[in-house]
Amino acid sequence: MTAEPYRPRRSVLYVPASNDKALAKIAQLSCDAVIIDLEDAVAPADKVAAREKLPAIFANRPGANHLGHRCEMVVRVNALASEWGADDLLAAAKFEPDGILLSKVATPRDILEVGDVLDDNSAPDSVKLWAMIETPRALLNIGAIAELGRDPASRLDCFVAGTNDLAKDTGVLATPDRRYLVPWLLQMVLAARAGGLDMLDGVANDFRDLDAFARECADATAMGFDGKTLIHPAQIDAANRAFAPSTAALTEARLIKDAFSRAENAGKGVIALNGRMVERLHLAQAEKLLAKAAAIGA
Ligand SMILES: CC(C)(COP(=O)(O)OP(=O)(O)OC[C@H]1O[C@@H](n2cnc3c(N)ncnc32)[C@H](O)[C@@H]1OP(=O)(O)O)[C@@H](O)C(=O)NCCC(=O)NCCSC(=O)C[C@H](O)C(=O)O
Ligand SMILES: [Mg+2]
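Above are the sequence and the magnesium ion SMILES. Below is the predicted complex in C-alpha cell form.
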C-alpha cells in the first residue's frame, strides 16, 4: 500500500435525500463530506422519490474551496438485500460520487459483490466504497472486511461506525460516555488501520447539546478516529476543530522536525529532545501531522 495524500474527513454530514431544505444547504456547509442518505433517514414510502432526486443533487455538486478541497459527495444506499438496494446502487454509480456507503454490511462478500457491480457498469476507479460497521456480524468479521482495503481493486476506502444500529442489534446501552461501545469502537479503529482505511465515528443524536458533542469528538480523536459522522450543521465546526491537529501537537511536531534537521543529528536513529527519547518514527508521525495541518489550513 502506498500512502495517499491526506484527504480531510473531519466532519461528514448525513443529509436525507428526501429533505429538500437540507439538500439546499449543502453548498454553504463547511463540512469535509456529505452523505446523501437513501437509507434510514428516508421513510419506506419516500425511498423511490428520494433516489430520483440524485440527478438534481449531483447537478449542484460543490466546487473546490480555497485550499483546493472539494466537499466529498457520498451516497448511502439501502442494504443490497432490501427491495431498494440494487436500484440505489446503479442510480448512485451513474453520478460518479466520491463514495458509495454500504449499509448493514456483514461480510467481505458484501463489498466484493458491490465492487463487481460497479466494475460491470464501468464506474471509474474514483468511485470508492465506504462500509457501515453497524451489525454484530460486521464486527465479528471486521478483520477480513478491513483486509480488502489492502487491495485497491476492492475500492474499499472508509469505515463508518453505526452506533445506533449496533446498540439496537446488541442491546448494549448507549450511555453518554459510550463506555459499553468503546471496546467495539477501538476494534474498528484497529481494523481500519490494518486495512489502510479511514475510520469515521458514529453520530451523536442529541444535536442540541454541543458541549456533550465536543466531549464525544475529543474522545473520538483520542481513540484515533479520522473524523465524525454528523446529523446537523450545528455540529460541523466542533468536529472540524476536534479532528484538526492541536496547537500543542503542531508545536511538538515542529520541534521534532527541527531537531532531526540539525547537522549533529544527521543519520541518527534516535535523539534526546527536552528529556524525552525521540525516534525517526516520531519524525514520520510529525511530518504526517504537519502535512495534515497544511492540507486543512490549520
Ligand atoms: C435531526 C433533524 C431531523 C433535525 O431537523 P430540524 O428540526 O429541521 O433542525 P433545525 O430546525 O435545527 O435545522 C436548522 C436548519 O438546518 C437544516 N438542516 C438540519 N439538518 C440538516 C442536515 N442533516 N443537513 C443539511 N441541513 C440540515 C434545516 O433544514 C434547517 O434549515 P433552514 O430551515 O433553511 O434554516 C435533521 O437535522 C436531520 O434530518 N438530520 C439528519 C438525519 C439523518 O440523516 N439520519 C440518518 C443518518 S444517522 C444514522 O443512520 C446512523 C447510523 O446508521 C447508525 O446506525 O448509527
Ligand atoms: Mg444505521
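Residues 247-296 form one domain.
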